[in-house]
Amino acid sequence: MSVYNTGTEALPPFNSAAKGDIVLRSSDAVHFRVFRCLLALASPFFDAMFDLPQPQPATVHGRTTLVGDLDVIPMTENGRTVDAMLRYCYPAASVPLPALETLEDVEQVLEGAIKYGMEGVEQQIRKLLVSPRFLDAQPLHVFAIATRLALEPEARLAARHLLQAPLPLPLPKARAGNEIQRGTVLPAADLARLHKYRARCTHAAQTLLANLASAGPRLAQSYAFYQWWTAACACPTRSDARAAGYMMHGTYARAWWADWLDGVRDALAEAPCGATAGRDVDKVVEERCAACPRCRRKAHAAVSEFASALAGEIDRAVEQVEL
What we know:
Blueprint: E1 8-9, E2 22-25, E3 30-34, H1 36-42, H2 44-51, E4 59-60, E5 63-64, E6 66-67, E7 70-74, H3 79-89, H4 103-115, H5 119-129, H6 132-135, H7 139-148, H8 152-161, H9 188-209, H10 212-219, H11 223-230, H12 241-244, E8 247-248, E9 251-252, H13 255-268, H14 281-288, H15 293-319
Parallel strand pairs: 1-3, 2-7
Antiparallel strand pairs: 2-3, 4-5, 6-7, 8-9
InterPro entries: BTB/POZ_dom, SKP1/BTB/POZ_sf
Domain BTB: 20-90
Protein name: BTB domain-containing protein
């Protein structure tokens, strides 16, 4: 009698005796009948295992470690994870890809792919990890997974995404050892790293804003903007515009414009990214320059043009910041 005779058969196509020459047994006792050659192609781990001399079937308390006449390889992953990994290993035309609907599913399959050296599977799941479906909804969770698995490009992408809003508070803190919940808690070192990264990004963005004169050529302002900026109107200028850095084309910023940029500078402390510069443009124009006929006619186009260019410059400045 086999020690593994109480296992559950996997879902098709991994349940056919004619479609496998070895059995993978998951941690929850699901039997997957697969071909050695496909496993060897997908995984150096299994390739090396199959090259080793194969012993006679082992026995446990007088029972063999066979399923039928097939050798069994015990896996530490559960059946759902093994099924997903195998579907990525098999030809796409013959086996549909799994529906990985949660980050927990993604993390477990990704961890297994890394463990067994399944580079093709790993690359596909890494792309899925930072897809908009997960990155937009759960960037902090994505960051936690990426840092735990030492996936630096994905960690950086998630950290950049987290710049779009204040960090969720309170952030959970990790406890020691095995008490850290997988993918949902940030170890203290990673949390500190994230905060320091955000601080450096804020500094880079605010420094750019304080040096608009030097950034002027890169902002690619149109001639229409130049005409509007340098033309006289009823709006007062602000005496500290030069000190604040809000002087371009040799002309002080209008007071309402400088006040708007003050607001952008403060907002960058909470969300140091280019999108911050373009928020509430309609509200800015409506509330700040309604009393000036000239500004009222042209300010919306000028603010929109400048905000769009400034957003690009902020993103470029932040892009240079290392995580």
